[in-house]
Amino acid sequence: MKNRFIIILLMILLLLPFITEAKELSNVDDGKLLIKTTKYYKTTNNYAFYKRELTVENSNTIEITKDEYDSFNVQNSKATTVETTYKKLTSSISKNGNFYRYKAKLVWKNIPSIRSYDIIGIGFYQSVKIKNNNVFFAQNYCLNDGSCYNSSINYPQIFSSGAGTSFLLPKGSLSSLSQTFYFDVEKNTTSTITTQLVASDYSHATSSINLKNSKKYSVSSNGIVLNGVSSYYDSINASKTYWSGNW
Questions:
Q1: Most exposed among 41, 123, 176, 184, judged by the fewest C-beta atoms under 10 Å?
Q2: Of 237, 229, 204, 231, whose CA–CA distance to 57 is shortest?
Q3: Which residue from 167, 193, 194 is spatially nearest to 178, judged by alpha carbons?
Q4: Over the chain, what is the mean pLDDT?
Q5: Average pLDDT of 21-34?
Q6: How far apart are the C-alpha atoms of 239 and 91, rounded to whole Å?
Q7: Residue 4 phi/psi, 5° resolution?
Q8: CA 105 → CA 22, 25, 26, 79, distances in Å?
């Protein structure tokens, strides 16, 4: 009985950092916003059942205008064997003290039927590096009953010109869903930096994939590059934003 109590206590302590970090991220001060860019996407998936599991036969994503995104009525949408989802991805650069903050935020307008391990990432120029290798993630969602939650459970990876993280989309009947990923950068050169880049990217799993395989990717200034698992994910053009100024 005593051992069981200790195990339960340890599990609670392990979860506390996730809960606290998510709350901190939702109220974080980004400093002075310098620039941001938002792109809007429409994805059409043709579904089929394979071994009693819903999967995508083919998927097509195109960029759309803000007006088309705003005019889409979620209330009138119905999930059938053909599902159309809308999402927007915002890239931003902020001045945060002596450093710069790179941020990506993905917002779903309607909720995808298939929910497995998705990936969000930010690519950048090699003239900078992530400060202390610290990256931050939060997933915010609300259920149809009005209750809302956030989670920072994620599995990040850092590369020479980018970083990304895998995370599991929440189950249940959702009314809203968004993910935020950010980090501060410091100089990785003794030369003056005149241009900075944030290349935000997002890969949504259109078939069930496990955590191990969801980590088979890299991130660069062009966004997320999938390594042998591209058939499991949709594909969008990265949302890129640039900032010019001496640093």
A1: 176
A2: 231
A3: 167
A4: 88
A5: 63
A6: 6
A7: -65, -40
A8: 14, 12, 12, 25
- Give the CA angle between residues 29, 31, 35 to the nearest 5°: 120
List the one residue out of 130, 126, 131, 83 whose CA is nearest residue 108: 83
Choose among 167, 187, 189: nearest CA to 177.
167
Instruction: Copy the structure tokens of residue 109.
Output: 């307008």
In which band, very low, low, confident or very high, does the pLDDT at 22 lie, cut at 50, 70 and 90?
Answer: very low
What was the pLDDT predicted at 82? 81
Q: What are phi and psi of 127, to 5 degrees?
A: -75, -10
**Contacts of residue 231, Cβ cutoff 8 Å, sequence gap at least 6:** 207
**Amino acid identity of 229?**
V
**DSSP string covering 130-143:** EGGG--EEEEEEEE
180-221 pLDDT, tens digit each: 999 999 999 999 999 999 999 999 999 899 999 999 999 999
Q: How far apart are CA 227 and CA 232, in angstroms?
A: 11
Instruction: Give the E-state strand segments of the chain in sequence order.
Output: 32-50, 53-64, 82-96, 99-108, 117-123, 128-130, 136-143, 148-151, 155-159, 162-168, 174-187, 195-203, 217-220, 223-226, 239-244
Spell out a b/e string for 116-154, using b for 16 or more CB atoms within 10 Å of the CB, else e: bbbbbbbbbbebbbbbeeebbbbbbbeeeeeeeebbbbb
Looking at this protein, which amino acid is placed at residue 142?
C
Which tens digits make up the pLDDT trace of 97-143? 999 999 999 999 999 989 999 999 999 999 999 999 999 999 999 99
Asked if 185 contacts 131 with a C-beta cutoff of 8 angstroms, the reply is yes
